[in-house]
Backbone:
C-alpha cells in the first residue's frame, strides 16, 4: 500500500543561522544556489529539517504506518523551496506564506511553479493521499476545481477553504471543537488527524482504508480515541 502525504513547513527547524536564506535569496536560482553553498554544512533532508509541532504530531503516524509495511511518501510545501520531497536536502531559511496579501501570494506561488507542481503531485497514483495544508498554503496551490486526482484524496481543511478543494476529493472540515476532541493545538490539528488516519490504515490494512473511504463523512468517529 502506498500513501502520499503533503504538509506545511514550519518556522521551527533543526538548524538556525544568522545568515539563513530569506525571500530575496529565493527570487533568483543563481543567488539561491550561491547562498546554499554558503550554508552547505547545514544541508539536511526535508524529512528531518522541520521540527515544529505539526511535524511532531504527524511523525508518529508516519512511523507506525512504515513499520506496518505501508510505503509513505512525505512531501512538504515550503514557501522558499516549493513542493519538496522528504529526501531533498535544504538549508536554513526563513520565509512563509502566512501574512502575504492575495496578490503577493499568487505571484510568489507562480514563481515557485506551484500551479504546475502541486497538480502533478495530486495526479500521481497512490492508494491514499492526505493533504494537510493550512489556509495560506492551500491558497498558494491555486488548484482547479476540475483537477483529476490520481488517488483517493482527503483534504483536511477549514470551513472557509472547503470550496477550494477539487470536486473529486473528500473534504474533512475541521471545526473549533476539534481542538478539544483531538487534544491538539489548532496549529497542528490537520497533522494530528493525518497521523490518526495513517495509524488506522496501518493497523487495519486495505479493509481499514476501504472503510475510511466509504465512511468518510464519519471521520471524527473513525479517528477519535
Residues:
Amino acid at each position: 500500500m502506498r500513501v502520499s502525504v503533503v504538509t506545511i513547513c514550519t518556522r521551527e527547524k533543526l538548524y538556525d543561522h544568522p545568515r539563513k536564506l530569506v525571500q530575496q535569496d529565493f527570487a533568483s536560482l543563481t543567488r539561491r544556489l550561491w547562498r546554499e553553498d554558503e550554508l552547505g554544512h547545514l544541508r539536511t533532508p526535508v524529512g528531518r529539517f522541520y521540527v515544529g509541532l505539526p511535524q511532531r504530531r504527524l511523525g508518529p503516524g508516519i512511523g507506525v504506518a512504515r513499520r506496518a509495511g505501508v510505503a509513505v511518501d512525505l512531501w512538504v510545501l515550503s514557501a522558499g523551496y516549493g513542493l519538496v520531497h522528504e529526501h531533498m536536502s535544504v538549508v536554513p531559511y526563513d520565509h512563509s506564506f502566512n501574512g502575504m496579501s492575495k496578490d503577493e501570494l499568487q505571484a510568489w506561488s507562480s514563481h515557485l511553479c506551484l500551479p504546475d507542481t502541486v497538480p502533478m503531485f495530486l495526479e500521481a497514483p497512490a492508494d491514499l493521499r492526505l493533504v494537510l495544508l493550512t489556509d495560506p498554503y492551500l491558497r498558494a496551490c491555486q488548484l482547479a476545481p476540475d483537477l483529476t486526482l490520481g488517488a483517493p484524496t482527503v483534504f483536511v481543511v477549514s470551513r472557509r477553504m472547503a470550496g477550494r478543494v477539487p470536486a473529486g476529493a473528500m473534504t474533512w472540515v475541521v471545526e473549533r471543537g476539534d481542538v478539544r476532541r483531538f487534544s491538539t493545538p489548532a496549529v497542528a490539528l490537520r497533522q494530528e488527524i493525518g497521523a490518526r488516519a495513517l495509524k488506522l490504515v496501518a493497523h487495519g490494512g486495505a479493509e481499514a482504508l476501504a472503510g475510511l473511504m466509504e465512511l468518510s463523512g464519519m471521520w471524527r468517529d473513525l479517528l477519535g480515541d
Remarks:
- The chain has a mean pLDDT of 95.
